[in-house]
Amino acid sequence: MTTRYRPRWGGLRGRRGIRGLLVVGLVVGLALVGCGDNGGEAGGGTKTGKENVANGFKIGLLLPESKTTRYETFDRPFITQKLNELCAKCQVLFQNADQDAAKQQSQAESMLTQGVKVLILDAVDVKAAGAIVNNAQSQGVPVVAYDRLATGPVTFYVSFDNRRVGQIQGQSLLDSISSGGDPKRGQIVMINGSPTDANAADFKAGAHSVLDGKVNIGQEFDTPDWSPDRAQQEMDQATTALGRDKIIGVYSANDGMAGGIIASMRGSGFNTPLPPVTGQDAELAGIQRILAGDQFMTVFKSIRPEANIAAEMAIAAATGKDFTGQDTTQRNNGTRDVTSVLLNPVAVTRDNIKDTVIKESFYTPQQICTAQFAQACTQAGIS
After folding, report:
1. 10-residue block means of pLDDT along the chain (383 residues)?
2. pTM score, two decimals?
3. β-strand 298-300 against 329-332: which pairing, if any?
4. Is residue 232 a contact partner of residue 261, using CB atoms and an 8 Å limit?
5. Domain map (residue ranges) of the chain
6. Beta bridge pairs of residue 58
7. CA 246, 250, 255: angle at the middle one, nearest 5?
């Protein structure tokens, strides 16, 4: 009996086997290549830039709104000035979203289409902004989160210690109402910032950490878009519900809303002096209300250092370098731990206007002490 020899890899079955092994080998090879090359990604999947300052490149600046005067008056010019100093040949593309998250996303897409190599993003809605960050990252464009920590693979983040801001506001309000007697002798009203702004949640949490259990919170609101008009309406509602004679203080998350709140109190016939009202951002109108005795305090966040750091972070991210300009910490945005710089806020009352906003050239005495406030300035030692 003759045994026929069959080649091990011969015939149709053998050819299929060879093709199968080749396919497997190709897949494995590609996988190994993929494992060995991360496409220039670093730090939680955020692509680092490869730009050159000497050649210049485009930088996108996206700010959230204009109802709060700081953004157009301070943030935009300060950031642009510092970017120009760091990269003379760079071109800054700017857009303001007017508190519209969908509009901000369209603005970001337009900037990416125009070839920006890094985005500085102050998000209207930090959760919705994750789409902007992910889209930028997919195109190799790093994102610096400015003032508000957006979700997604953000490269760097700069802001103030926002929980500390709320604590300062809460403590200032508590100290003021305690100076008049039992802090539970009446009710306070809390008018918080926008529910879509993660910073507002931090301010609110910080204030509650000081006030809870020590005061009676009669009414509390979250204010869409940080709207002064809406804050005025909310204060009207609180006054109707509680009675003006029962309200001994108001927590306002920022100065713009404080203006609306004070207008409501004036319209409702509150006695003078008004119950203490807090604020934030050291807006010119807020400083003047403090001098006039209508607003008790504000929180000064020196914007120039924040803007300068944002510009430095943007250049570092675009050129693929680590940020080493300041003491950094880590903040988790739900996606990753982000290298962050958190600056310290300062309480401003009538007693230290001269040593804060004037000393740091945020405003000049001439800007503050208009004819309407000239006497109040003299009384506060400002000339």
Report:
1. 37 39 36 34 51 97 92 96 98 97 98 98 96 98 97 97 97 98 98 94 98 98 96 98 98 98 98 97 97 98 96 97 90 95 97 95 96 96 92
2. 0.81
3. unpaired
4. yes
5. 46-160+302-343, 162-301+346-379
6. 91, 116
7. 155
Q: Which two tokens mark 257?
A: 């809303």
Could you give the C-alpha distances from 305 to 160, 311, 342, in angstroms and in order?
10, 10, 11
Distance CA 367, CA 331 (A): 37
Six-digit token string for 153: 């693979």
**Domain 46-160+302-343 sits in which CATH superfamily?**
Response regulator (3.40.50.2300)
Q: What is the pLDDT of residue 48?
A: 61
Tokens 């008790």, residue located:
296
- The letter for the amino acid at 307 is A
Class at the top of the CATH hierarchy for domain 162-301+346-379: alpha beta
